[in-house]
Structure formats: C-alpha cells, structure tokens
Design a protein that fits this description.
Radius of gyration: 28 Å
CATH superfamily of the largest domain: ATPase, nucleotide binding domain
Shape: globular
Number of strands: 7
Largest sheet: 5 strands, mixed
CATH topology of the largest domain: Nucleotidyltransferase, domain 5
Low-confidence stretches: 1-16
Mean pLDDT: 91
Order of helices and strands: HEEEHEHEHHHHHHHHEEHHH
CATH architecture of the largest domain: 2-Layer Sandwich
Strand content: 5-15%
Oligomer: single chain
CATH class of the largest domain: Alpha Beta
Number of helices: 14
C-alpha cells in the first residue's frame, strides 16, 4: 500500500519543480545545459541567435525532467558580445535570467585546468542553482534600459575615434621619419596641407601615396570627432543633459568627463552607500589577511573601467584647479611630499573620495567642501 502511494508523490514533486539552464554563447553556436536538480544535466545546441531553437531546447528539457509546460525556468549567461538583447528576450518569454560577470565565476586554480564549453556550462549551471539557494558566489550585473544603453554609444565612439586619430597621426610621423622629415605642425591640423605641399616631393611616389591615403583616413576621423563633440555640446546647451550640465559646473570637470561619468554610472545606477559606489567603480580596497600575512593588494579594478580611468584623470585636474578644496588639502598633507609611488597610491584614494563627493553632489546638491563652481556666463 505504501509503495502505491509513493509513486504519485514522486510525480507531483517532479511536476512542481523548476528548470535551471545555462548558456554558453559562441559566435556560431550556443551550448545550453539544463537540469531540474534531481537529474543530471542535459545538453543542447542551437545556432547562435536562433530564438526558436532556444525555445525548443527549453521544451525538450522540460519533457526530459517531466516538468509541466508552465514550469518556471531560471537561466544565466556570461556578459559578452551579445550584450542585453538576449536577457530582455528571455524576460519577455517569462524566463528568469541573470547576466553575470565572467571574472567573478569560480575556477580551478591549477596552472593547467581543463576548459571546454561542456565544463563551463556545468559550472555555470551549478552556480546558478547555488545562487537561487541563497548563496552569493558571483557578481550579477545591473541591467540598463535600452535608452540608457544606447546613450553610452556617443562617448564610447569618441574614445575609439580618438585612438584611431592617434594611430593615424603616429603612422604618418613614422613614415616621414624614414626620409628624415620631422613634422613641425600638427599632422592633419590646420597647417598640415601647406606643410605637406612644401615637402611631398622629398618623399618617393609609393610612400607619398601611402601617406596621402593615411591623411585622408585621418581627415575623416577628425571630421567625425568634431561632429560627435558638437552633438554633446548641443545637447548640454539645449538642456537635454541636466546631470552633465550640473557636474560640469564644478571647476576641473568639463563636458567630456561629466558625460562619461553620468552615462556610465551616475545617470542610471543607484547606490545605497559609498561602498557600493566604490565597488561599482573598482576603487574598493582588496585586503589579504591570512594567518600572519596582512597585505593590502590595492584596488580591485573589478568595476567600470571607463569611469575609473576618467576619475583618475579628473583627480589630477582637481589638484590643480581646486587647490582650496578639502580633498586637495588632504592629498597635499598625506602624499604631496612623498615619492612617485606614494603619489600614485594617493591619487587613487583621491579618485575614490572624488567619486563619493560627486555622487553626493548629484544626488543631494552638496558641493564638495571647499570646491568652487565655474562662473556663469552672461
């Protein structure tokens, strides 16, 4: 009699279960690993970007685990090239998905460790189940809205175009040095055409053509840079970017720096305290305290690299253009008289303090102590 009752109990338990699934996203194919926790993982393949195939894999996984068609599905994948579109699509299908930081996933610390899509999928699946059991073993990324994600394209394209401009400029200068021609003007600048017209005959014809083609690419990059800078200035002047305008009122912070900080962090992220802010920027300390060893390993660098780089750059400018602020006085008292290494350590500490001060300024209107604002133009 007891055996007869055990069978329907097991079936009921199965139909009330939930499905867990991990994605390994490749350029050509996706590997899906699924399990309900009672059976071993099942593995499926789908062509990259084929959403219909993904739904079919989920259906087959539910059938294998004897789950109801409406059984809840939890999934995860590592942040990468596919960005957020897959996360949003999964949410529209009623699937609870997580996008995780790949650097926060546990790995074997052996020098030579096996790494395959199968092993990575199993590891992600195991950590997903541990996450839903209450363990916090990895870093889950915060999802921006489509508008917030699109707003980050301008300054990121500007950074890429700036690197291209430097590359073209250096290339032209290096080609000219082959014939002992030292450029006395800015390559691609206002006087470049006049300088090149006077010296082009000193360059062999094939190399001359290469330099002129490089100059044409440089001119296109400079044109696109000017257009994007114009877009930024126009939006600030028209009042479409109030946070950028507010941040740029502080001395030492221009439109470029304010734009990066607002679009990457302050414009859409919400922080409960300064520790969360420092962690998001990768400016949190990384202590090593084990046994008799107590070592400070420096900042974690686990956060937003673009915002962190900009904050370090602004920290140096802050020292020069905000000499009377309390943060500058603190830096001068602690680090100004030390060596180069200690000043580099100090500038990171100042960048962290500056980030907290700017966050409070945008959230509550608190001007950093001792800081001055730019004069309002008439």
């Amino acid at each position: 009699m007891s055996t007869t009752q055990a069978i329907p109990q097991e079936k009921n338990k199965a139909t009330q279960g939930e499905l867990y699934m991990s994605f390994e996203l490749g350029d050509k194919s996706w590997k899906l690993t699924a399990s309900d926790g009672r059976r071993g993982p099942s593995r499926y393949s789908a062509q990259a970007g084929d959403t219909a195939a993904v739904l079919d894999c989920i259906r087959r996984a539910r059938e294998r685990c004897e789950l109801e068609p409406q059984a809840r599905v939890h999934s995860c994948y590592e942040a990468g090239r596919d960005g957020w579109w897959l996360h949003r699509w999964l949410g529209q299908q009623g699937i609870d998905n997580l996008v995780v930081d790949a650097a926060s996933i546990e790995v074997n610390r052996r020098a030579r460790r096996a790494k395959t899509d199968r092993l990575d999928g199993d590891r992600l699946l195991a950590m997903l189940r541990r996450h839903h059991a209450g363990e916090r073993g990895w870093s889950v990324l915060h999802e921006p809205t489509p508008e917030q994600e699109d707003a980050r394209r301008v300054h990121r394209e500007l950074a890429r175009l700036t690197q291209e401009r430097i590359a073209h400029t250096n290339r032209i200068g290096s080609l000219l040095v082959l014939h002992n021609l030292r450029v006395s003007v800015t390559v691609g600048g206002r006087d470049w055409a006049y300088w090149w017209e006077r010296h082009r005959e000193q360059v062999p014809p094939v190399l001359r053509g290469e330099i002129e083609r490089e100059s044409a690419r440089l001119a296109l990059v400079r044109q696109q840079l000017n257009e994007l800078h114009g877009v930024q200035r126009q939006e600030v002047v028209q009042g479409k970017q109030p946070l950028v305008a507010q941040l740029a009122r502080l001395r030492a912070i221009g439109t470029k720096g304010a734009w990066v900080l607002v679009k990457e962090v302050f414009g859409w992220r919400r922080f409960a305290n300064r520790r969360e802010l420092a962690g998001c920027l990768g400016l949190a300390p990384t202590p090593y305290n084990s046994g008799d060893s107590q070592i400070e390993q420096g900042i974690s660098k686990a956060g937003n690299k673009r915002a962190r780089t900009m904050l370090v750059e602004l920290a140096w400018r802050w020292l020069r253009l905000q000499p009377d602020s309390l943060m500058t006085l603190w830096f001068n008292r602690r680090f100004a008289g030390s060596g180069k290494r200690m000043r580099r350590v100090g500038i990171l500490a100042l960048a962290r303090r500056l980030a907290i001060a700017l966050w409070r300024y945008l959230e509550h209107g608190e001007i950093p102590a001792g800081a001055s604002l730019k004069a309002v133009s008439a």
